[in-house]
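tool=predict chain=A
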Amino acid sequence: MSEEERIGVVLLVTAPIGSSFRNIVRAVGREPPSSPPVAWESRENRALPNIESRLKFMTHYALCVIPSEIWDHPSLTLLTKFAHAKFWDHPGDSTSSTASRSSRSGSIIERNADRTWEKPYIRAIESGQEIGRTNMFYRGLRRDWRYMPVYWNCHDLAIRLAYLIVPASNDVMGFLRELMRGLMEAYFRERALVWQSTKVALGIWTTGALRTLDATPSLTAVDTVLFMAELGVGYYVSEATMAKLRTKEMYMRKLEEQFPKLKPLHFHWRRWSF
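tool=predict ok
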């Protein structure tokens, strides 16, 4: 942690870019709907859609810090303001590549910390939210972050970074707490759409098979088999989910040892999950 003389505006931003995004999409099992483009030539900060208005699980999260004199400047466009931003994010792979670039030299791995994004990646941003203002930032949180596409991903890193570097307040806690809850609900909602489409496809296939076979089991028997299959899949997913949640809990406790400030944020997450 270090202090800067200039005050920075801390924002969480979302963008469908990078390996982290692709890993999340593969984990959920479907492509997310695209969002309308942002009016990047606008000089109004409110032209950037807030995260709540475009909340979805299948996207990449990053934290960025923009000098306050840049963010508050009335004659600069949004694109220009974000060109001055420094980004922190998790790339979602072992190479630690940033959204805009990646490099590796021997055993030295580039960290996704304090980096600028090129304009094509800035233009890919779909939403953003000002969390607060700060003169502090962390470099150590990203180290040894074991990535899981759903349960310990770029969302988790960006939210925790924002909570650590912005002065504590009820507003900050309330927003990040509700964002964590909203992302959890969005994941299950988006996953349910995949499961529903799978069931529909399986039903169509089964109906077609029934029509082509001379000797066909009764519909009741087929329904029973499908129902038992659903129970089996549900049990497997539940066990796998609980294993990942236990792993996430272990990672959170390790973070709390290094950053005790995270305990209240984690407390609310635990209340929803267990």
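Residues 95-110, 200-207, 209-231 have pLDDT under 50 and may be disordered. Residues 2-167 form one domain.
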